[in-house]
Amino acid sequence: MGNQTMKPNPTVRPRLSLSRAQAIRRSPGRRGALLGVVLLAGVAADGRAAPQDGQPRPGAIIPRKLIFGNPERSSPALSPDGKRLAFLAPDEGVMNIWVAPGRDIREAKPVTRDRGRGIRTYFWAYTNDDLIYVQDKDGDENWRVYRLNLASGEVRDLTPFDGVQARIQEVSYKRPNAILVGVNNRDPRLHDIHLVELASGDMTLVQRNDGEKDGGFVGFITDADFAVRFGLRMLPDGGQEILRREADGEFASFIRIDADDALTTQPLGFNDAGDVLYMLDSRERDTAALVSVDPATGRTTPLVFDPKADIQDVISHPRTRQIQAAASVYDRQKWFILDNDIRANIDGLRSIVDGELDVVSRSLDDQHWIVSFTIDRDSTRYYYYDRATRSGPLLFSARPSLPRTLLTGMTPVVIKSRDGLELVSYLTLPKGADTEKPGRPDQPLPMVLMVHGGPWGRDTWGYNPHHQWLANRGYAVLSVNFRGSTGFGKRFVNAADKEWAGKMHDDLIDAVRWAVDQGVADPKRVAIMGGSYGGYAALAGLTFTPDVFACGVAIVGPSNLVTLLESIPPYWSPMISLFTRRVGDHRTEEGRQFLRERSPLTFVDRIRKPLLIGQGANDPRVKQAESDQIVQAMQSRNIPVTYVLYPDEGHGFARPENRLSFYAVAEAFLAEHLGGRAEPFGDDFKGSSITVPVGADEIARLKESLP
Predict the structure, then answer these.
(1) Global pTM?
(2) Class of domain 408-531
């Protein structure tokens, strides 16, 4: 909580996704849950980006580096006193923190000197002179917390433990010189809460997470005074329990959440006074409402409710922590204003851009804001907003070198599943493909079905690098919020229980059939692609429905649900009942047999279409063995496969050099099997750790192009 906005507590909901570690907040006020370069000038050897009057010619290929390389700037944050502005930007090609006086980004200078994976998550401490950031090692998600003092330039590792994961628990203007951190150094399954002094690094235990005594908490709720107020515990049936910490230090049951509500009900945090607990709550309705709870009596008061979608985002006052606005997202974002003090500000800001608005940073006196707009035909735009003058000049766009004339719009569509569910989806077409009817191509196109991770996540409207990249190469791109996606109420998410490779996959097939029936997709040229759960879906597509897809791209996708659940990170073990209820129970023979029947590895001999697999060697969620075993099974059956492995990556590809190299391979793979365009490999392997242990000769010119 703290300085900007509250987010749902990430410790309650582990996700198999390509986003950042779910326990780390982007800023002290964000709980939740996935980072410029100069436009190439002149005429490339293949004629792909010849500018005309400063703009690329129509139909030009957008260089991959402009899409998947580092942004020019991102993630701005005001210091609490509003006197300085920090943001992330490359320094010698690596993302680092920069700081500018006031809002003058021209005077900004880098204050960190990382030369490895880069910094992706940081925030200001309330001292105004310290920045806190987190980093892991090569994607292992053993996050360490670092403090940078701007006056001295000193960087201190506040959690100097090997093989241990740290989580930011709380920051507060009332305790500017310290933060609360959760660390699992005593028991790898459980995070104890510690008070950490910023200047000295001294660490004091505040709350022991006692597995033997309390069964182990998946997380704690603390207040602005750094008091531990509640603990969160998973129940054996997949439900949750919120327990209140009493005066004697013992925990007593406060709220029980049935399993049907467990993915749509969770605490957000306290107001500054500590007398209001905010929650998302679906217990008396289908979609999650924003409610306030009296922490003494448990009395619940509904604040905001949308019958079509869960409340997913909130804006809270930087000092009082009172929630002032809340947003739901069905197909597009919808804000509900609770505090008239900001109504005129939000209404005025929404008139600037037709996009999804977020208040990403606020000074402690609430006079200065940083707001962002997510739009479909440009990268994220950030504005500096002065509440006194109600002016909001543009600070920067994340990727100003993107040729906006080549970007194309994203169309929300609602597809009916075979059993009547509404699948909110997003369709992107190549530029100029829909001259006769907007949102429908003039003729069927090769299509890529992009499947999101999680599965307890969702796709949204806005700039999507994969959509723009693939549409520019000539493909229709469709992303589907299949059952199990979050944001659409508890009935929708619960409809996915034990439906991996079942009805969840049926939803994807129904979306492909819709695209074919609507004249969007050529049925013989449809690919399935995704990461994490999306990678699993790609493997399932080629095994459970081998005649639907022309090829598949699976990134960090589990192939065997038994081994996946047997190898979850130790700090997910208190949440095992979530997996066993939602996916299947690997602890019983009956459950193991069920999971084997839903595992692509079991049906590997059905694979008849080309497959590209990408994996990080240090992935703690989907271990390398998940990719190794299906590759080995395919090799033993003489089934072709291309396997791309990165020794310095985890759950997804964080280093831009690795991202560029993988998408260069994927682009050549898709062009070969769907017939779209491809930019030559060029220097996209430079600086990458890419290895291709299997199948490099399956993709034209790949083997000779590898470093």
Answers:
(1) 0.93
(2) alpha beta
